[in-house]
Write the structure tokens for this entry.
Amino acid sequence: MSRLKATLLRIRDFMLNLLTSPWFSYKTNYTIDGTKWIMSRDDLDHWPSMPHFHSVEKDEKMNVYTGDIYDIKTKNYLRSVGKKDMKTLWKDKKAVAIIMYSIEKHDITDAKIPDYAAKMTAEEIGKALKIYDFSFKENDDAE
């Protein structure tokens, strides 16, 4: 990688971190498909999924449910991540908390949660995201 490209990627990473508060975003400390990813809890863009990951190093987005990776500019499908990487993602409680919060907040009805996803209660999700009044709608209806 050229020095200029490496510098530009570092600037991009800095800007992504600057623009996304740590309370509302999450950067993986592991790699998926050879790169690190950032997921925003309240991203306004719902493509290719809500929520979705942004690559730190490339102009790519990843659908969190399917593992499909797309080019940001052209929206063309590029590839899918392997099952091992998907299992790593779905065992990550912080990532799962953001996903479950987004499903609830945006009333997403077609989300396909894998069987191997980390199981979390509403209270665990709220603590992971530092939202102490978070609860699922079905729990609110029961009261």
